[in-house]
Specification:
This protein is of the alpha+beta class and about 130 residues long. It contains one helix and five strands. It has a five-stranded antiparallel sheet, with no helix packed on it. The termini are far apart. The model has no long low-confidence stretch (mean pLDDT about 80).
Length: about 130
């Protein structure tokens, strides 16, 4: 009977040591990882928004049929990063039409990007 008690005690001690080691590892991971949070606020909702992104004075990219444009705020390493995000059709050929081969995509615009956002009510989803 005494051998059985020693065996149980060893298993309990081992379980306590493993639990303590895992707890310490989890706490260390939580402390060491960078604090990253993402807060989104919806700034505009509709059905036919357009975003035009410029490279200097040249139109570089256009997204059409945007139904929501949001502001994302991320805090990473104590620094706040702000960008705009939405979903729209990438007008790849810049013809101001949603062509059948153009798909709806998610996009993000950094706070340092030159862009214009406006509503175009006569654009329809295809």
């Amino acid at each position: 009977m005494r051998i059985f008690k020693n065996s149980v005690r060893r298993k309990v001690r081992l379980a306590i040591i493993v639990f303590a080691a895992l707890s310490a590892a989890i706490v260390l991971w939580l402390v060491m990882r960078p604090a990253t949070r993402e807060i989104a606020t919806v700034d505009w909702t509709g059905t036919n928004g357009v975003v035009e992104i410029f490279d200097g004075d040249r139109l570089a990219r256009r997204y059409m049929g945007i139904d929501e444009l949001s502001t994302l705020r991320r805090v990473k390493n104590g620094m706040e990063q702000v960008c705009r995000a939405g979903r729209g059709y990438l007008d790849a050929n810049l013809n101001f039409m949603v062509d059948p081969d153009e798909k709806k995509v998610y996009f993000e615009i950094s706070e340092f990007t030159n862009y214009i956002f406006f509503e175009q009510p006569d654009i329809t989803d295809q």
